[in-house]
């Protein structure tokens, strides 16, 4: 496997002279000139209107600066903030390592940088020129200085350095440059002295930027160091195991961060030693041994019979629990059901010793993580929080989006397979589900789950509001996911199926080894699009009762005594936050698409 | 016989049939039935739990409450309070008002979003750098901010406008922009409208004739006749003349009245006979056309049973219609007579008395007690809730539509426009006759999806208090706790909307599809 970057962009031609450029692009014909005039008017009008919203007299931006912590982490206790920084650190390390593992190193020519600097500088100057009178004069001066400085730097880059369109800035340089700019802004821009003390907004000390600039700087340095280390490691070992490790991390890691680090469960160690640990070990080792033995070639009939017996036992467990015949931990019931499915699937993994060992090891690892997470989730939290959900603000928005995508992925795969299958009952069930869910608005699904789910559950079994909303999101997202994956499934040629059959693969093997990898590869761009949509749709939590970014901006901040009725600044700010995240994702998806297409083309 | 002489057939049969637990035919159905049973069991379980839990709370599911008086405050809509003439605002009527509000904002939103989206999408392909940049900034900004955030931001922006007075707004008295909403003059059909319309109909005939002649000349002699411009100019002249001269057509009023009177004296038997003859003639025509379509150069093709059945069915249907008209439902004929007479009478009343009157007129927004008048003869008013939902939805969706339009136009291969140019078409003709028809095929399906999204996203009105169906439904179930019943109404309503839109889009798609062999 080669890991060279695929660069499909053609070499860039030198820039024409500014006069020539303006004539070609803005005044080439009468209609072109008319368009230039019309769109200049539109652009200036819009810009002036937006600036009027931002710098109006009644917009009190102190409300945003003061509530920065509320907007991002809601009421997470301040003395436990080290947990948030730790979580952020783990994420930054993972991002750096993933960049290294997938060899993401887009380089940009100096000319591109120069052109974008020129554009930014020009826009800054225009903005400085037309700012409304309510703008603080210091800010306006700063804009003038910044605009002139950017234009001068851009002119130097474009005109003084020879052949800027041939010189490329490597990815590491870009990473360091962007990080340096972000850190420099934190260190040197006077954001103002606003902060929290004891839950009350104060205008005295502890400004948000100054209390967080050290951790942020450290985080960026860690990320760059991880990237460099990862690139170094990639020179020595092959990238495949690194990638596998990163995928496993991205599946398990966020759950670890939320439920182990942020939630800080107060483990009952006596119970863990006496019950949880033995149970996990029993399922992991016992199940692993059974899978290892049954995966030997020629034992498939035995595996099926045993699997059927375990499945019957698992079903009986649930029935018994329903009628209250004998108590059994829910964890054990889930594990039995999972074991039954695993044993029924074992014949598909039959093979030599190393392959069997690997399957058994995957099962054992899965069981350990599963039991450990369930134990953590079911243990009370030590956090001292006044309002129950410990997730809020930006953290809640991001976590919900991430877990919804993660949880709806397997559901979506199953639904799409059922919808494209030849088995009529599966097809009808899945089509009905998908079409009904896609036919109704998300908000009604969320209302349904947050109101009706508690009614559907047996008495004595509660579910938190956030979990109910999460279930609603997952059910909704799975239907759209299924349609996206179905598009990929339909692009797999018939010959692939026939070839798999000719090799004597079973249906499960054919689906999981031949069809799905190709189908998923095709549907990646659509899935990223869906991830962006899911991220934006998390704002609906605000309607059903969670404290996400929107709810805080729209109702918490305007109700603070100091900032009564101050909705507009906070709403504009969260629009910016949503925009930055969603736009970054869509740009990344476009690059990914080009990369995949280039890979296909070769 | 020895042991070796086993029957070869049975050996093959034994070889071909795997054991039961490996027989795919058996397994397939076994697994499907197990899954079906599991789904049904889960449904039964949840339904039983819900029934127990609901009846434990004393709120069994029913639909009897639909006729109860609502006693809820609806923000806006058609007839949101008890009528003076005794019609009460019941729960079902409140839900109906919500549905109408949803459809109102969805349909107008679809039109507005399409208009903006098409313009921006085309501007993204302009040869002007600034047009491309501005439209791409528009698209990227709007589609990356959640629509709910945009709606609430619009509410915050509109809510901080000035107080509502008659003079608030860019044109005092005519256009009102205030923190309570936006109101513009309502244009309505005035007295002269039907005279105007009938005059236009009269002018349409010569215009159509000129057009046909010019087209024939173009086809015969080649070259380009200015068909479009001439038609436009003539139509303009016709509109101007009709606008001022419309009282001339007032004589049509008595004519229609006369028709109405004449229609009323038609005896019932005559109408029955006419209807019967029409039914029989229709059946005969259909059968003749059908036989024609089965005719081949070698004579009539052999008719299969199905064909005979169709013809016999057409005949029976005609006889049935005759029976219904004459014996089954004699009232039908008199109903047609009465309503026809009424219809012409109403049309006759629409014509004035020959005095000068405008075809269209405008009504200024009116205020009463410092508020907009909700309903009735006043300007066209958007409350601030309607406006914020409308602007949020329209601008957000238009950014997606712009991308769809751009993608559709770019999907037409460049060779097509080059071929059009080679045939001698100019740029506009190439766009209209070659590029756009092909782009439409690509554009239509995702566009339909966006229309569906607008309709579903109107439910976000709940965040700003616009009384659409979901918000009204929530008010209703907060009052009587009939959540399950209200959710079923939501579901049926939105599924009906989705099915309608996808039906329309699919129909258009089938029309646009390339006809293949």
List the helices and strands and how they pair.
The complex is a heterodimer of chains A (602) and B (517).
Chain A: H1 18-26, H2 30-54, H3 62-66, H4 68-73, H5 81-101, E1 108-109, H6 110-130, H7 137-160, E2 168-169, H8 171-188, E3 195-197, E4 200-202, H9 208-236, H10 239-262, H11 269-294, H12 300-323, H13 330-345, H14 353-378, H15 393-420, H16 424-439, H17 442-456, H18 465-490, H19 494-502, H20 507-537, H21 541-544, H22 549-556, H23 568-601
Chain B: H1 8-16, H2 24-56, H3 91-123, H4 129-143, H5 147-159, E1 176-178, E2 181-184, E3 186-189, H6 193-221, H7 227-245, H8 252-264, H9 268-293, E4 295-296, E5 299-300, H10 305-328, H11 331-350, E6 360-363, E7 367-368, E8 371-372, E9 380-383, H12 384-411, H13 414-422, H14 427-457, H15 469-480, H16 483-512
Antiparallel strand pairs in B: 1-2, 2-9, 3-6, 4-5, 7-8
Helix pairs in contact in B: 3-12, 3-15, 4-12, 5-12, 6-7, 8-11, 9-10, 12-14, 13-14, 14-16, 15-16
By CATH, the architecture of the largest domain in chain B is named Orthogonal Bundle
Task: Give the number of domains of chain B.
Answer: 3
Radius of gyration of chain B: 33 Å
Number of separate strands of chain B: 9
Give the CA-CA distance, first to last residue of chain B.
Answer: 64 Å
N- to C-terminal distance of chain A: 13 Å
Spatial order of strands in the largest sheet of chain A = 1-2
Mean pLDDT of chain B: 84
CATH fold-level label of the largest domain in chain A: MetI-like fold
């Amino acid at each position: 496997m080669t890991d060279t970057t695929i660069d499909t962009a053609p070499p860039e031609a030198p820039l024409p002279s500014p006069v020539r450029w303006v004539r070609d692009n803005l005044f080439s014909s009468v209609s072109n000139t008319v368009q230039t005039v019309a769109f200049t008017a539109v652009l200036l009008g819009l810009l002036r209107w937006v600036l009027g919203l931002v710098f109006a007299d009644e917009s009190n931006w102190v409300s945003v600066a003061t509530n920065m912590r509320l907007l991002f982490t809601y009421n997470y206790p301040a003395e436990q903030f080290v947990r948030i920084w730790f979580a952020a650190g783990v994420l930054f390390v993972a991002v750096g390592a993933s960049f290294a593992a997938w060899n993401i190193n887009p380089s940009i020519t100096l000319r591109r940088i120069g052109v974008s600097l020129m554009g930014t500088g020009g826009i800054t100057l225009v903005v400085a020129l037309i700012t409304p009178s309510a703008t603080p004069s210091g800010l306006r001066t700063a804009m003038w200085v910044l605009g002139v400085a950017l234009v001068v730097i851009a002119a130097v880059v474009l005109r003084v350095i020879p052949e800027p369109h041939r010189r490329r800035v490597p990815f590491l340089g870009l990473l360091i440059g962007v990080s340096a700019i972000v850190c420099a802004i934190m260190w040197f821009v006077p954001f103002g002295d606003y902060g929290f003390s004891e839950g009350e907004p104060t205008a005295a000390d502890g400004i948000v930027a100054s209390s967080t600039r050290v951790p942020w700087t450290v985080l960026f340095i860690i990320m760059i160091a991880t990237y460099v280390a990862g690139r170094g490691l990639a020179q020595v070992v092959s990238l495949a195991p690194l990638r596998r490790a990163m995928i496993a991390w991205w599946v398990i890691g966020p759950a670890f961060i939320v439920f182990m680090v942020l939630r800080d469960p107060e483990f009952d160690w006596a119970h863990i030693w006496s019950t949880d640990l033995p149970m996990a070990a029993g399922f992991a080792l016992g199940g692993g041994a059974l899978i290892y033995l049954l995966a030997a070639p020629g034992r498939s009939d035995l595996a099926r019979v045993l699997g059927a017996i375990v499945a019957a036992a698992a079903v009986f467990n649930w029935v018994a629990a329903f009628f209250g015949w004998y108590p059994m931990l829910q964890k054990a019931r889930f594990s039995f059901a999972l074991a039954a499915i695993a044993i029924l699937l074992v014949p598909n993994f039959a093979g030599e010793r190393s392959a069997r060992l690997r399957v058994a090891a995957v099962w054992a690892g899965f069981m350990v993580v599963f039991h450990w997470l369930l134990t953590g989730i079911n243990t009370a939290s030590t956090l001292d929080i006044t309002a129950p959900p410990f997730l809020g603000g930006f953290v809640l928005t991001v976590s919900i989006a991430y877990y919804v995508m993660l949880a709806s992925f397997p559901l979506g795969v199953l639904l799409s397979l059922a919808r494209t299958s030849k088995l009529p009952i599966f097809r009808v069930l899945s089509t009905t589900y998908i079409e009904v869910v896609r036919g109704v608005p998300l908000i009604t699904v969320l209302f349904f789950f947050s109101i009706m789910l508690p009614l559907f559950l047996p008495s004595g079994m509660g579910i938190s509001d956030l979990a109910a909303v999460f279930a609603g999101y997952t059910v909704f997202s799975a239907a759209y996911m299924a349609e996206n994956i179905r598009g990929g499934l339909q692009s797999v040629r018939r010959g692939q199926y026939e070839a798999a059959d000719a090799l004597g693969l079973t249906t499960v093997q054919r689906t999981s080894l031949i069809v799905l990898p190709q189908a998923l590869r095709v549907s990646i761009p659509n899935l990223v699009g869906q991830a962006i949509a899911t991220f934006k749709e998390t704002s609906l939590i605000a309607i059903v009762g969670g404290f996400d970014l929107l709810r805080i901006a729209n109702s918490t901040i305007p109700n603070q005594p100091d900032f009564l009725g101050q909705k507009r600044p906070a709403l504009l700010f969260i629009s910016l936050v949503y925009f930055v995240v969603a736009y970054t994702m869509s740009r990344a998806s476009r690059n990914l698409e080009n990369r995949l297409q280039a890979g296909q083309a070769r | 016989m020895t042991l070796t002489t086993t029957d070869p057939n049975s050996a093959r049969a034994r070889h071909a049939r795997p054991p039961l637990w490996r027989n795919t035919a058996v397994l397939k159905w076994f697994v499907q039935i197990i899954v079906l049973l599991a789904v049904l069991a889960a449904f039964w379980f949840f339904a039983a739990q819900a029934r127990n839990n609901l009846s434990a709370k004393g709120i069994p599911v029913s639909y009897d409450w639909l006729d109860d008086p609502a006693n809820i405050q609806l923000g806006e809509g058609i007839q949101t309070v008890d009528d003076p003439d005794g019609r009460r605002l019941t729960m079902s009527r409140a839900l109906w008002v919500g549905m109408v509000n949803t459809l109102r904002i969805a349909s107008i939103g679809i039109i507005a979003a399409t208009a903006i989206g098409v313009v921006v999408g085309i501007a993204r392909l302009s040869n002007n750098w600034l047009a491309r940049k501005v439209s791409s900034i528009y698209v990227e900004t709007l589609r990356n901010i959640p629509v709910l955030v945009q709606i609430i931001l619009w509410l915050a922006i509109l809510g901080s406008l000035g107080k509502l007075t008659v003079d608030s707004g860019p044109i005092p008295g005519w256009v009102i922009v205030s923190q309570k909403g936006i109101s513009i003059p309502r244009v309505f059909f005035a007295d002269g409208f039907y005279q105007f319309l009938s005059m236009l109909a009269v002018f349409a005939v010569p215009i159509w004739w000129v057009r046909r002649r010019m087209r024939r000349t173009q086809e015969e002699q080649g070259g380009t006749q200015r068909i479009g411009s001439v038609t436009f100019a003539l139509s303009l002249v016709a509109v101007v003349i009709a606008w001022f001269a419309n009282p001339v057509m007032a004589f049509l009023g008595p004519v229609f009245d006369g028709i109405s009177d004449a229609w009323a004296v038609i005896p019932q038997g005559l109408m029955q006979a006419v209807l019967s003859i029409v039914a029989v003639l229709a059946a005969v025509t259909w059968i003749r056309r059908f036989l024609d379509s089965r005719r081949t150069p070698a004579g009539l093709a052999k008719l299969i049973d199905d064909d005979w059945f169709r013809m016999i069915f057409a005949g029976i249907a005609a006889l049935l219609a005759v029976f219904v008209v004459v014996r089954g439902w004699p009232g039908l004929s008199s109903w047609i007579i009465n309503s026809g007479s009424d219809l012409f009478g109403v049309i006759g009343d629409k014509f004035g008395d020959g005095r000068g009157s405008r075809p269209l007129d405008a009504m200024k927004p009116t205020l009463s007690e410092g508020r907009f008048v909700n309903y009735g003869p006043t300007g066209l008013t958007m409350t601030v809730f309607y406006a914020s939902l409308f602007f949020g939805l329209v601008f957000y969706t238009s950014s997606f539509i712009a991308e769809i339009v751009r993608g559709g136009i770019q999907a037409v291969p460049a060779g097509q426009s080059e071929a059009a140019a080679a045939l001698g078409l100019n740029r506009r003709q190439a766009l209209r006759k070659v590029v756009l028809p092909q782009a439409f095929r690509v554009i239509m399906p995702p566009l339909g999806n966006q229309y569906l999204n607008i309709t579903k996203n109107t439910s976000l009105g709940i965040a700003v208090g616009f009384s659409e169906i979901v918000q009204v439904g929530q008010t209703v179930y907060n009052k009587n706790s009939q959540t399950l019943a209200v959710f079923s109404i939501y579901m049926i309503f939105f599924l009906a909307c989705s099915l309608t839109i996808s039906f329309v889009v699919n129909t258009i798609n089938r029309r646009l599809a390339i006809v293949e062999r």
